[in-house]
Amino acid sequence: MKFSEQWLRDWVSPALSTQALADQITMAGLEVDGVEAVAAAFSDVVVAEVVGKEPHPDADKLNVCRVDDGSGEPVPVVCGAPNVAVGQKVPFARVGAVLPGDFTIKQARLRGVESRGMICSASELGLEEETSTGILVLPASAPVGEGFRDFMGLDDHTIEVDLTPNRGDCLSLKGLAREVGVLNRLTIEGPDLVPVGPTHDETFPVRVEDGERCPRYIGRLIKGVDVTAKTPLWMVERLRRGGIRSIDPVVDVTNYVMLELGQPLHAFDLANLHGSVVVRLAREGECLVLLDGQEITLDGATLVIADERGPLAIAGVMGGEHSGVSAETRDIFLESAFFSPLAVAGQARSYGLHTDASHRFERGVDPRLPREAAERATALLLEITGGEPGPLLEVASEPHLPHGREASLRSSRLEQALGKSLPRDEVTEILERLGLVVESSAQGWHVQVPSWRFDISIEEDLIEEVARIHGYNRLPVRRPQVRLALRPSHEAHTPLARLRQQMVARGYQEAVTYSFVAPELQQVLHPEALSPTLANPISSDLSVMRASLFPGLVRALQHNLNRQQSRVRLFETGLTFRGELDHLHQTPMLGALVCGPREPEGWAGVREPVDFFDLKGDLESLLALGEPQAWRFEPGEHSALHPGQCARILHRGEEAGWIGTLHPAVRARLGLKVDALLFEVRLDALTQGRVPAFTPLSRHPEVRRDLAFLVDEELPVQSLLDTIRAQAGEWLVESHLFDVYQGRGVPEGFKSVALGLTWQHPSRTLNDEEINQLVDAIVTESRQHLGAELRA
């Protein structure tokens, strides 16, 4: 929220500098995001009156004006503004004045006519960002000769406060003034809020069908308003400094009261209301054109303001275009209501909206404020636009209105939490200055919470209030005295940090993506996946919970490729979600994606593309950290992976993940022009390891035999290795594949697989007869079960 420092000081003005005031607000828990001057620096600009105007003799679009700047004699000025007129009070830059942008005003001759100064527009003085079409016209009461900065109060600052969601009571000048007053032990002095007496007895019927969502609704009929009246400059300036653009006097007044008191209001054109105002839930299929011109289709959970013909506004969010105030409006119906925070929360976002009204109603507005705000707005409207007010019409559902809350604070608990003992009188004073009704007891204090403090309900809330008003910087700094026992370390467990380090050592970078993905992307990669859909997503492309890490990694790949990063190596750890919300399985996973050249670009490198076995090697380096013999790879089919370059990953015989190349059809649908390889493995399996154990080294020599088998080209080498290990006996210490060959000398449809086998006995030397028996058993078993023949 933005607010003017001068406006705040009209309510309460502590003897603090601007920066000290901002620091005090921050230390009270209302963080100040920034402090900015409300206008750029300029000098020697005064209030002047146009006392003469004649057409320029040599230019159709210029006028020669005479300006009284209070110096004695009228000053000749050539002005091209279309709205300049005799009798206007205007900002006038004298010769020698310096305007924003370091622009110095000099005496000049324009088309042969002398000009000594410049009549300024709002944009030329830095009061508007857009270029103004005419000069800035000041009120007739502006004193001639007074400095323009002083008259406009431009030696002011805009302070922007970033409020936490629980402090909706500070989304107004009144709320901030209460805080500053409490912090500095000052009383606040707001405007006199005197009820406006009705001048006629006409009302417009109001019917509230949903008292739970709208417990209080106040309306007032004001007849004969002049919407073409000009909003006072002081109000326009306060709105500008609060970040709101002036539109017309009726809208400006409702915005002004919202900034001042914190109560959003809305004005309807009475001519466009039919029958009665009805507060109800929308009917399915009803449409509404909003004030911003957007047409939306309402759903049945949306609270609307309607008449007998249909919806007029989304309650607490935005009004409709058809019923809004226009230049032809003569009679208005002023609305001031209290909507339950739960009735408004999420409604604006569900339609892609965020308004000042919804921002406040979602956080909670004082339920007693609507009448006060309606009276304040009525008084301002009558002052600016004129009109005849009717009586206030109120419809309230007492059972659904928030009732007074009570809480207790124990002195012993307060001392324990703050680390110091505060005098009882000081605590009582702090609570009373906050607006709480305090009753002391032997154990501490019992308080009644004011209607505007939605965030106070339990003892901890009261402790927080006492701490921040007393001053966090005044609390003692104490280090807790504890005995920290070492946590047991599971030697058979591979920590996640070790897995991350290994991936980084292999050249990967860690990615962190949302747990929510676009439903279209998940459908492409995992058409069979079932995961929850969010009722209130951050955006439409983050509306389902991910069933795999693949969608997030693929999206990160697209992001990098779009920025000319051709070599991508990413990994991610996180939860995946499968099943319905009531039976949701959350599985921690580790996934990785590679794309592009195998090695970084270099003078000695060959730019070969990364392939399946590169990625498999990186994964096997992770498996080696735990229990490598517990893992197996077998052919499989996955909807997102290439059928010929895809493997199911098994851990102790159970499926633990997938590895493969992105399916060409999937790649085409995603618009990727390069191959990408991915794997995904369950973290609980990856982190399972074994306790290292020492095996004595044998003093006896090893015996090695190399065997080359002719096998069917479709036979997995793993099947051959499994058969060999089963027949090789207990003294086999190593078996590895060192060659696969197809070509001359090998029959078509077959391949030659060469394996190196090493035996070693721990206590004696193995003889040839023992080794030959084992080799014969291997050859016989391979021939019988796999059709393998020993190659000559």
Question: How is the topology of this model organized?
Answer:
Elements lengths: L1 E3 H7 L6 H10 L3 E7 L5 E13 L7 E6 L6 E5 L9 E11 L3 E2 L3 E3 L2 E3 L2 E2 L28 H5 L4 E6 L10 H12 L21 E3 L7 E8 L9 H9 L7 H13 L3 E5 L7 E5 L5 E3 L5 E3 L5 E5 L2 E5 L3 E2 L12 E7 L2 H4 L2 H4 L5 H8 L5 H17 L2 E2 L3 E4 L8 E6 H8 L5 H10 L3 E4 L3 E6 L9 H12 L25 H10 L3 E2 L5 E2 L1 H7 L18 E2 L4 H12 L6 E11 L6 E11 L16 H12 L7 E5 L5 E11 L2 E9 L1 H7 L6 E6 H4 L16 E10 L4 H11 L4 E10 L8 E10 L8 H19 L2 E2 L2
Parallel strand pairs: 12-15, 27-30
Antiparallel strand pairs: 1-11, 2-11, 3-4, 3-6, 4-5, 6-7, 6-10, 8-9, 13-21, 13-22, 13-23, 14-21, 15-18, 16-17, 18-19, 19-20, 24-26, 25-26, 28-29, 30-31, 31-35, 32-33, 33-34, 34-35, 36-38, 36-39, 37-38
Helix pairs in contact: 1-4, 5-6, 6-10, 20-21
